[in-house]
Amino acid sequence: MSVLVVGISHNSAPVAMLESVSVDAEALHKMVTDVAHSEHVTEAAVIATCNRLEIYTEVERFHGSVEELSMMIVERAGTSVEAMLPHLYVHYDDGAVSHLFQVAAGLDSMAVGEAQILGQTRAALQLGQELGTVGPALNSLFQQALRVGKRTRAETDIDRAAPSLVDSALARAEESAGSLGGRRMLVIGAGAMAGLAAATVSRRGVGELVVLSRTEDRAVRLAAEYGGRAAPLAGLAAEVAAADVVIACAGAAGVLIGTEMVGDRSDRPLTLVDLALPHDVDPAAGELPGVTLVGLAALAEELHHSEAAAEVAAVRDIVTQEVAAFLTARRQASVTPTVVALRSMATSVVDAEMARLEARLPGLDEATRAEVLQAIRRVADKLLHEPTVRVKELADQTGAVSYAAALAELFALDPQAVTAVTRPDVPEDGPKGRSRR
Questions:
Q1: Are the CB atoms for 261 and 236 separated by under 8 Å?
Q2: CA distance linking residue 299 with residue 295, whole number of Å
Q3: How far is CA 245 from the centre of its chain?
Q4: d(Cα 422, Cα 426) in Å, to the nearest integer?
Q5: Distance between CA atoms of residues 199 and 194, nearest Å
Q6: Handedness of CA 318, 320, 321, 323 (dihedral sign)
Q7: How far apart are CA 404 and CA 416, in angstroms?
Q8: How far is CA 426 from the centre of its chain?
């Protein structure tokens, strides 16, 4: 398996560039399908979130694949190659495994430890499965990444880092607007981050909580859960005018709160907290009188230097362990087809020798035949035991030597016999009926 990742995220590109590559559900389906039909790609999955777009593939050639996948992202952004390429990153094979595990664990998120990325990783796997672009290689990788993500959250308090993001935002709001007690708080959105914001706000004893969302029933449920009220998104301007603090986390296709909606707030200060990518709030709104705009990037930077650092260190240790274990298992599994083919060849030799013996000794009784067969099998097993154990041990050592290939060469194994057990659960034509080149 050779896994290649080509991507762009908040760690490599400015917000404006991330917004240019954002994809909706229809565009995501098309991208996954297009990637899977690339010349050297045999499996494909795409993780698309508000602050990352990453293409995961199993490939047969590195260089041609990097160029083709990179151009897909460049074309999506609608910009020049020169402008985009410096912001793309590439991870290959062991590095790709490590990167995905860090992503699933929340280490690579803008809000370190946020829980949404685990669901987004699962969604990428499920979409690939539905479209038939994920085969055994990526399925195994993503399934293990999901287990790593769950383990880090079960064994550490990394999941407290994301709530710290909202706490930090509210602390900023208090710096500009004073105590939030008795203040009117507006939450825009009804997803995971909006739920987190509503929960954090309710614990602080604000005067009124108002929730707005395009999906009205979700807004009603979220508001009811935390003792607030829901309002239609059509009434956003009026609600903003009446609010003291606005937390925007809808991640809309366009700006929801512009300067004209905010206006001059000199008589009643307003704090705008924009936790969305793409932006929900026009950055220019922060320049208006009486308005304080708190952005996601500044909050994430604060969080990276907070007390969550100890939890991040613990999660990094877990990820390091899991990457090493996965790579060890993968290297050992890589020799399994050769070992299976070798033992199958030995069985054929034993069967052939028994058939020849029976032809020469037609009067051989059943008890003697069984004893002879058992003796031959024991000899074959003992002769093969040490080579098969050693080849698995050697396969775990780094280096350029392919011990599986050496074993196949020494025993003159039929290459087709090895290939036959390499992918027992994948049709000959591979994912989506494409021929495997």
A1: yes
A2: 7
A3: 33
A4: 9
A5: 9
A6: positive
A7: 14
A8: 23
Q: How far is 176 from 351, CA to CA, in rounded Å?
A: 85
Q: What are phi and psi of 3, to 5 degrees?
A: -95, 135
What SS3 state is found at 1?
coil
Write down the residue that tokens 């395009």 correspond to.
Answer: 214
1's tokens: 């398996």
Q: Please list the pLDDT of the chain residue by residue as tens digits (437 residues).
A: 589 999 999 888 877 788 788 888 889 999 999 999 998 999 999 999 877 999 999 998 888 899 999 999 999 888 888 989 999 999 999 999 999 999 999 888 876 777 778 999 999 999 999 999 999 999 999 999 999 999 999 999 887 766 666 777 778 778 877 787 788 999 998 776 788 788 888 887 778 999 998 878 888 988 998 899 999 888 999 999 999 999 998 866 678 999 999 999 988 889 999 887 778 899 999 999 999 998 877 776 665 555 466 788 899 999 999 998 898 887 776 677 777 877 888 888 888 988 998 888 888 888 998 999 999 999 988 888 887 777 766 666 655 456 666 666 767 666 665 565 554 443 334 444 343 33
CA–CA separation, 278 vs 295, rounded Å? Answer: 12
Q: Where are the alpha helices (DSSP H) in 226-307?
A: 236-242, 259-262, 296-304
Q: Residue 334, Cβ neighbours under 10 Å: how many?
A: 16
Strands (E), 245-395: 245-248, 270-274, 291-295
What count of other Cβ atoms lies within 10 Å of the Cβ of residue 328?
A: 12
Cα–Cα separations (whole angstroms), residue 121 to 55, 131, 146: 12, 16, 7
Quote the CA–CA distance of 6 and 38 in Å, as a whole number.
Answer: 14
Distance between CA atoms of 77 and 20, rounded to whole angstroms?
A: 5
| Axis crossing angle, helix 403-410 with helix 336-360, rounded to the nearest 10 | 20
Q: Measured between alpha carbons, how far is 174 from 271 in angstroms, rounded to an integer?
A: 9
Q: Evaluate whether 211 touches 190 at the Cβ level (below 8 Å).
A: yes
State if pTM tops 0.85. Answer: no
Written as six digits, the tokens of 103 are 């992503």
Q: DSSP letter string over 165-207?
A: HHHHHHHHHHHHH---BT-EEEEE--SHHHHHHHHHHHHTTBS
Catalytic residues: 50
Whether residue 70 contacts residue 86, with contact meaning beta carbons closer than 8 Å, is answered with no
DSSP states along 14-52 = -HHHHHHT---HHHHHHHHHHHHTSTTEEEEEEEEETTE
